[in-house]
Amino acid sequence: MKSSDKNLTNALIHLGRDNQSNGRSVNLPIHQASTMLFNTLEEFEEARSTRYDMGTLYYGRYGTPATFELENTMTHLEQGAGCVAVSSGLTACVISIMSFIKAGDHILVADTVYGPTRAFCDNVLSAYGVDVTYFDPLIGADVDQFIQDNTQVVFFEAPGSSTFEVPNIPAISEAARKSGAVSILDGTWATPLYCQPLKLGVDVVVHSGSKYLSGHSDAMLGFIVSSSKEHYRTTRKMSLFIGDRVGGNDVFLALRGLRTLSVRLRQHAENTQKCLDWLAQQSEVERILYPAHPDCPGHEFWQRDFAGATGLFSVIFKPGYETQIRTMINSLSLFGIGLSWGGFESLAIPVDPSPFRTATTWSSEGPVVRFHIGLEDPESLILDLENGFKFLK
Ligand SMILES: *Cc1c(COP(=O)(O)O)cnc(C)c1O
């Protein structure tokens, strides 16, 4: 383990607990608040004048001591200048974009971003007079050919949703910086433990906190972590202008989930590798899309820029199995059918990347299944897959 990894592992255990009012308990209490009370009008007015600052207790929507502890923990994990906790991962994508864009501007968006992020760009940004151009995430420094005078944001994701292309993060963020645009990266898949985009030159990194960070499929929140105080202030203000907030219970669950992130990810990765070793040998499998797998587009960038791989990947099956795949998924007993991932449980759903692309074309013919490998016993997961694959004959 590198010393930076050691530091992160220790930080997960010890950060975010520095609270005077926790009644000697290890964990912070669930902090529920709307009204906050002041002893004097002068105190109240002082809080109002600094209400946009990190740590000011003013009114529940602006954050509680537990929200600030969680935000400080994420800031530290990403080595950033500040973090805004928001109500979902999608909100983190949306608010980070809105922080740096206005009518008449242009935004560059990677073709493989999370579907609902794309839906926001197509349905909302376009209606508010922002021009959207999608680009091939594997284009690297050549992204500069799409940069216009009014390009204010370059938004991308590492790796891409469902198809896992790993972009050249330093090259794309450098191209954005040269043109004066803000680079925003959705880093949900890797978590700050396995990739630290701010160190690679990205200006703002966003996460869904509903996935591995909280890790138990029971919380919804997101994070926006900025490389500079200025970007931090801009994103925090935008979240407050919009009126977004994270509930106290979700803050509690995220802080608790983070404590075990390091061991959970290690086990997700180990189980995933075992399942992939089995899957790679099956004649029905055409290709595995997983950043740590040599077949994955951009694998070399994963090798260079990431410290590990998590438990989400896709499998392209050979053409002809379209209906059998459905029976196979329905037959699995340890793999649930449902959205999201990053919890302790395994999941499998069919995905169709083709309708969501405009800058690139999806050329694989066979059906694609996205798997999340959970913390079950890996031999049992393989047995379950073996039984399911019997329907592919
Ligand atoms: C799930 C996901 C999101 C959205 O997160 P929610 O917390 O579900 O809103 C954003 N980006 C990526 C890459 C995701 O996988």
Features:
38% helix, 393 residues, five-stranded mixed sheet, Aspartate Aminotransferase, domain 2, binds pyridoxal-5'-phosphate, seven-stranded mixed sheet, alpha/beta, Aspartate Aminotransferase, domain 1, 16% strand
What would your notes on this structure say?
The mean pLDDT is 96. The chain has 393 residues and is of the alpha/beta class. Helix 7 links the parallel strand 5 and strand 6. It folds into 2 domains: 256 residues, Type I PLP-dependent aspartate aminotransferase-like (Major domain) (Aspartate Aminotransferase, domain 2), CATH 3.40.640; 132 residues, Aspartate Aminotransferase, domain 1 (Alpha-Beta Complex), CATH 3.90.1150. The site of pyridoxal-5'-phosphate has 15 residues, from helix 4.
Gist of the model:
The chain contains 13 helices and twelve strands.
Q: Calculate Rg over CA atoms.
A: 21 Å
Instruction: List the strand order in the largest sheet.
Output: 1-7-6-5-4-2-3
Q: Tell me, what's the shape?
A: globular
Number of domains: 2
Mean pLDDT: 96
Structural class designation: alpha/beta
- For this structure, what is the CATH class of the largest domain? Alpha Beta
Q: State the distance separating the first and last CA atoms.
A: 44 Å
Under CATH, the homologous superfamily of the largest domain reads Type I PLP-dependent aspartate aminotransferase-like (Major domain)
Report the count of strand segments: 12
Residues in helices, as a percent range: 25-40%
Small ligands present: pyridoxal-5'-phosphate
- Uncertain stretches of 5 or more adjacent residues: none
